[in-house]
Design a protein that fits this description.
Elements lengths: L1 H25 L3 H22 L5 H19 L6 H23 L7 H4 L4 H19 L3 H18 L4 H22 L8 H30 L4 H7 L3 H14 L1
Helix pairs in contact: 1-2, 1-9, 2-3, 2-9, 3-4, 3-9, 4-7, 6-7, 6-8, 7-8, 8-9
Keywords: Membrane, Transmembrane, Transmembrane helix
Membrane topology: Multi-pass membrane protein
Main location: membrane
Length: 252
């Protein structure tokens, strides 16, 4: 009961922070928007901690690393300006995507890489189109942006190994970063409420990935065999078994 209450508390905190952040963006309340953006990933890490149990394993551990890198990507660029801020954000989120790739890699056999390889063409197509659209105006940033796009696409592909929630979460996260790239490198890009859409897809995508990771952890713990010492403890001693058998033989 306590763990459920803690999970609900962290979940409510995350939803409230996201809603407050989006409202601040709409109201042009920059200070509040900055503060809440720096708090959303720590709150989501609290959700993941409350939704999983020790030993958490590789998938959960690396998901925590991805959330930590995402927090840096949300906060560190605020200390910098211009291209330095953008590169800091790309660098931090590149680390986040690498962490997610490492986290999801053990589930590759359940992903579209094995179950539906034909769908890989769609992911590759999105990456090629996005890089092609951004390339004419990316300049010296083209290489880091292309590398980031490749790792981001790999994350989205491997996320399908965590089921439908993972697949949707990875795709929505990809959309969020694609919107950032379009807003940065495509002249004339004018999506109403651009920042709101970026943060909405970002927070929803991350939340879906965390839920998928938590479900994966729960499923793995459910099917995990009991330790050998517990199995031995559950068995009656051999002499007891022999005694019971002997008594049954006398009764017959």
């Amino acid at each position: 009961m306590l763990s459920s209450a803690v999970l609900r508390s962290w979940s409510v905190a995350y939803v409230v922070l996201v809603a407050t952040h989006l409202g601040a963006l709409l109201a042009d309340a920059d200070a509040l928007a900055d503060l809440t953006q720096c708090l959303v990933m720590p709150a989501l890490a609290g959700v993941l901690a409350a939704a999983t149990r020790w030993p958490r394993g590789r998938v959960v551990t690396w998901a925590f690393a991805a959330l930590a890198a995402s927090f840096l990507g949300d906060s560190l660029p605020r200390l910098l300006d211009g291209d330095a801020a953008f590169l800091a954000m790309v660098g931090c989120f590149l680390l986040a995507q690498v962490a997610y790739v490492v986290a999801f890699a053990p589930r590759v056999r359940r992903s579209v890489v094995r179950t539906a390889p034909g769908r890989l063409a769609a992911y590759a197509g999105v990456l090629v189109v996005l890089v092609a659209v951004c390339a004419p105006h990316a300049g010296a940033l083209l290489v880091p942006v292309a590398v980031y796009g490749g790792v981001l696409t790999a994350m989205a592909v491997l996320a399908t190994g965590l089921g439908r929630l993972g697949a949707v979460g990875g795709a929505v996260f990809l959309v969020s970063d694609a919107l950032i790239a379009l807003g940065r490198f495509v002249p004339g890009w004018d999506l109403a409420g651009h920042d709101v859409w970026v943060m909405l897809t970002y927070t929803v995508g991350q939340a879906l990935l965390v839920v998928a990771v938590a479900r994966d952890n729960r499923e793995r713990r459910r099917v995990r065999p009991a330790p050998a010492r517990e199995v031995r403890a559950a068995r009656p001693p051999d002499n007891v078994v022999a005694l019971v058998a002997a008594r049954r033989g006398l009764q017959v």
